[in-house]
Amino acid sequence: MARVKPKRHGVVTDMTAMCDVAFLLLTFFILTTQFKKPDVEQIKPPSSISEKLLPDASLMSINVTPEGTFYFTPVDNGSERIQLLNKMGEKYGLKFSDADKVAFTKVQSIGVPMSKLKSYLDLSDVDRKAITKSEGIPLDSTNKQLIDWVQQSLAVNPDYKLAIKGDVNTKYPKVKDLFEGLRDIDFLKFWLITSQEGKEQ
Length: 201
Known about the structure:
The chain is about 40% helix and about 10% strand. It has seven helices and six strands, in the order αβββαααααβαββ. The chain has helices at about 15-30, 80-90, 100-105, 115-120, 125-130, 145-155, 170-185; strands spanning about 45-50, 60-65, 70-75, 160-165, 190, 195. The strands form two sheets. A four-stranded mixed sheet has the order 3-2-4-5, covered by helices on one side. Strands 1-6 form a two-stranded parallel ribbon. Helix 7 (about 170-185) links the parallel strand 4 (about 160-165) and strand 5 (about 190). It is elongated.
């Protein structure tokens, strides 16, 4: 007698849970993604084969343009930025209002001397973003304001780290002045930002 074959039923998979998980993951990645902030001026760093990633937290940076203009970017922590502004104000005999301090927590980079910082902070966000070129922070043998920004940042938090991004066409004396200034405050460990060999940054 022939065996009775059981009737085959199609497999039904409920995809509702999978859709929920997919949308949860998508939402998570959208909310936690940090987009790279554009440079104040176009800087093309030299290439290298290094693949080390920079730390995200407690990182301050210095940008050097092809003309040798210096920009300083403090860490993103708002309360520590205000402490830094207060320390720089004390050093240079300047008083900053509460509005100045709020504006300072929002600026991307500083590219003006201390004498012009208050007027820069008084500008609206739109006007500040409209500035494409700046005179930069002074750094020479008699005026080392850039080094003061680094030194006062370290006074706020000694664990801060520094990354330097210079253009491939920046003149060597400018970079030398920066390295010597950092050496003078005994700050000898920092990262140099480069582009990946064979890739554009």
